[in-house]
Amino acid sequence: MTLILLSIIPLLGIILLIPPLFKGGRDVWDVPEARIEALEEKKRMLVHAIRELDFDFGTGKLDVGDHDAQRGTLKEELAEVVGRLKKEEGAGG
Amino acid sequence: MSFKGNGKFVAGFTVIVLALGYLAFSGYEESKAYYRTVAEVKVLPDDERHLRLKVNGNVEEGSIRFVGDGVDFLLIGDDQSLPVEYRGSDPVPDTFRDGSEAIVTGNIRDDGVFEAKKIQAKCASKYEATYDSEAHTITTVEEADTY
Amino acid sequence: MLELGGVSLITLLPVAFFGVVASFLGGATKRMSWVRAGERSLAYAAFLVTLAVAVLVIQFFRNDFTNSYVANHSNAALPLFYKATALWAGQEGSLLFWNWLLSVYGIAVLLVHRNRNRDLMPYVTGILLVSVAFFTVLNVFIANPFRPLVIEQASNQVLFTPGDGLGLNPLLQHPVMAIHPPTLYLGFVGFAIPFAFAMAALLARSPGARWIRLTRRWTLLAWFFLTTGVLLGARWAYVELGWGGYWAWDPVENASLMPWLTGTAYLHSVMIQERKGMLKVWNITLVAATYFLCLFGTFLTRSGVVNSVHAFAQSPIGAYFIAFIVSGVFLTVVLVRSRREYLKSEATFDSMISRESTFLFNNLILLAACFAVLWGTIFPVISEAVRGEKISVGPPFFNKVNVPIGLFLLFLTGAGPLLAWRKTSFAGLRRNFTIPVAAAVVLTAALLISGVRNGYAVVCFALGVFVVAGILIEFSRGTRTRMRQTGETLFRALGGLVWRNNRRYGGYVVHLGVVLLFAGIAGSAFNKDVRGEVGEGETLSIGDFAVRVESIEEGATPNYEFERADVSLLHDGEVIRALRPERRFYLASEQPSSEVEIYSTLREDIYVVFASRGPAGGAVIQIYHNPLVKWIWIGAIVLTFGTIVSFLPGGGRKRHP
To answer: pLDDT tens for residues C328-376?
Structure first.
């Protein structure tokens, strides 16, 4: 009796784990394209950086000179990344 | 990491690492202790008598004597016994008692007495002890059952 | 019952291995059928471990001493609460407990992330299951918690059921000790998640910081538990071990500190990757190091490789851990090397005087601390292997290295937030540093004038004020700006500011907690103690305080016998508190234990120990005078609160304060 009850545990495992293998054939999912993902990442990073820069300037932690100089560079980089992203997406269809 | 061409970082890190290395070495020199068995301590060569030692053994049953705010006892190892005097600043650990396994840290005196600065102790009936390896525990349990 | 537990563990073994294979195949072939089978394996594994844990707990509750683990770690008279905590009192149970936490974490991760990040999840599942499989192997083959109690009788193995168990180690019969191990384990196990995601990102060739963003909360959660676990351990040592201190650089303590150091370094260095796309290899290295140190910590606590008073165990389990850790490190290195092209840095360091360079120094110094602690901890093993001579190092080694490291870290804690990213101009430096530096100078002068002569302590307090001033300025600037912009009242503006930017301001609160904690530790520079035999009616004094023994009582409970000194604590001759330090003798485990009494104020702790009965029949009383200790626990609470603030969802998307 105990033996039968105990054998439920491994049997349940087989019932749960094996059938899914025979269901559904090739269910390929979308993988973000590495190059595009990298650009998206960079864009997100720069937007975040500009936001934080403005925040620090807003509270008076940064002075005008530091803020403007950095914001300029970040803006330029962002424009470039956005441009490349548009081109990639256009090319990718 | 990329410090290429950035000597200042490397210089800063080097200074820190060297300073810490020096501190580590002096701390090591100050606190190193050599593991020795009771038998080895009994016949310690002269050039090792000044070393701080760590000796492992068992506290002989009935040998513990509280003296003032310290304690004297015999440490047994390799069938030999080592007299130990403890006058450290911390209270003797709870686990220190007859038969317990103890590690004493300190120096050997010229009269052959070990002057302990620190005692660590583990109970003989250890927490991981199992019934099959601890014959005496079983007897106590069985006695408790019959009485 | 034993069979039920045993069968669940044995079934767990093929389930975990099958899940590993299915998940990795699913990730590589991108077939949902394999992926689902992997996920179900993790789910079923979690069910099986839960079943095993439930069986063991029930056996403890029912005093089922047929199980040798129960017989060795419990007894009938043990309070119910401690019967539940006895689950992790020994090696077998704590490995099972580890596995249980890991599989429960695994289920949580699946539920949260399963439907997005399809490319990463199969690998995450697989990697978590590798650890599950490892702990299952240990539980099944070396440290099985479901072994019947067998004794040898006339050279036959006979089943044996004792009338009562050996009892729980009295040191573990303390409320703090009941929550310390699970908290620490939640931290140890929690770092499996960011590690699994980092490896998954490499395997799936996912560039960038997506894995870091996905695991930010999980990492913070693990760090939260690890920090709390370490501090609870210190608290337990302080109130329970009876030697007046909270940290002895014991291997078991070091085991929990090392992953904390690398984990803290990781929390800071990911910000550089998120902000500048740098240090990608470094972050993976740190998170892997942290997880492996967590495993190493478990190994140190459970194997007794380095002699330690409270590393209870000694078993062949060490070889398995070392093999697992070494192969894990090897595979990580291989994987990182094969993915070099995804890990190129996108920027360089611009200036020494910038936020990122303070993070970098913070990383270096935390790692140096970790390395020193590791070195000191395993030095007996190393020296024996290299020179054939077992040499140990003591607290002076650890203190000499770590005190200056701690102070430098404290300085960086203050300076970092005041510096801008990339570079800071001289005007910027003056704008942000003037007040904090002035505050530090004023405090230093005040301390020196009032006669404080301990160099490290003065530096620590001065740096503490420097950090606090910087944090207060940050809060007040942000709040004022918000009041101006939104017209809110002071408290609404402060609340809104923190809520909108919870990650940043939560971090500041954590820093505040760290300062308080450091101040409490610096208090130890002024510790004093005294010991002596005191008869009834006599007193023993230390500074302005004294202890008068009123009476010495004896008594018993079903669990232990006790001797108690009823003493009065006097301050300047006035009685301020009655204290009752106790010595107990636990009956089942035949172990003595001291119960200390602590009179604790914000200024100082008076810590009273009933050390022993003296030769003249009086009580040998030891009194420790420990200034500022309470600030450690207050700092711990502030730190915990700050971590929770930065963990909350918040509203970090708004542009304005």
So the answer is: 999 999 999 999 888 888 877 777 788 888 998 999 999 999 999 999 9
Residues B86 and B44 in one domain: yes
Residues B68 and B117 placed together within one structural domain of the fold: yes
Of B2, B8, B93, the CB nearest to C352: B8
Query: Could you tell me if C53 and C102 are in contact, meaning their C-beta atoms sit under 8 angstroms apart?
Result: no
C323 neighbors C151 (Cβ within 8 angstroms): no
Mean pLDDT of A68-74: 89
The answer to whether the CB atoms of B16 and C395 lie below 8 A apart is no
B98 and B45 co-located in one domain: yes
CB < 8 Å from C in window 21-60 of B:
23-24, 26-28, 30-35, 54, 56
* B33 contacts: CB under 8 Å, gap ≥ 6: B51, B52, B53, B54, B105, C391, C392, C393, C394
Which three-class secondary structure string do you get for C111-138? HHHCCCCCCCHHHHHHHHHHHHHHHHHH
Judged on CB neighbours under 10 Å (0-12, 13-18, 19+), C237 is buried
Q: Say yes or no: C290 contacts chain A, CB-CB below 8 A.
A: no
Cα distances from C270 to residues C37, C172, C211, C274, C332, in angstroms, run: 33, 37, 11, 6, 18
C321/A73 Cα distance (integer angstroms) = 50
**What is the tens place of the pLDDT at every residue in C28-72?**
988 888 999 999 999 999 999 999 999 999 999 999 888 989 988
Same domain, B25 and B37: no
- Over residues A5-32, the pLDDT tens digits come to 888 888 888 888 888 788 765 666 666 6
Least confident of B3-12, C351-360, C419-428, C441-450: B3-12
* Cα-based angle C193, C195, C199 (whole degrees, multiple of 5): 120
Q: Is residue B141 predicted with pLDDT exceeding 60?
A: no
Cβ <8 Å between C400 and B122: no
Whether residue B132 lies inside any domain: the answer is no
Q: Are residues B114 and B90 in the same domain?
A: yes
B92 occurs within a structural domain:
yes
Number of inter-chain CB pairs under 8 A, A vs C: 135
CB contact under 8 A, A63 and C422: no
**B89 and B107 belong to one structural domain:** yes
Q: Is B69 on the interface with C (CB under 8 A)?
A: yes
User: What pTM value is reported for the model?
Assistant: 0.91
Tell me the pLDDT tens digit for each residue of C90-120. Answer: 889 999 999 999 999 999 999 999 888 888 9
Inform me whether the C-beta atom of residue B14 falls under 8 Å from chain C C-beta atoms. no
Rounded to an integer, the average pLDDT of A72-88 is: 90
B65 and B21 fall within a common domain = no
- Cα–Cα dist C405/C367, whole Å: 10
Q: Does any domain span residue B134? A: no
State the total domains in chain B. Answer: 2
Residue B135 lies in a domain: no
C657 neighbourhood in chain A, CB within 8 Å: 55, 58-59
Under 8 Å between Cβ of C61 and C74: no
pLDDT at C366: 95
> Are the Cβ atoms of C274 and A23 closer than 8 angstroms?
no
Q: Output the average pLDDT for chain B.
A: 76
Q: How far is C454 from C469, CA to CA, in rounded Å?
A: 23
Strand B33-36 to strand B53-59: parallel, antiparallel, or no bridges (unpaired)? parallel
Q: What is the CATH number of the domain that holds B84?
A: 2.40.50.140
Q: What is the pLDDT of residue C91?
A: 86
Query: What pLDDT was estimated at residue A92?
Result: 55
Asked if A31 lies within 8 A of C342 by C-beta distance, the reply is: no
Q: B71 lies in which domain range?
A: 33-121
Whether B49 and B108 share a structural domain: yes
C-beta atoms of A55 and C657 within 8 A: yes
- Check residue C309 and give its pLDDT: 37
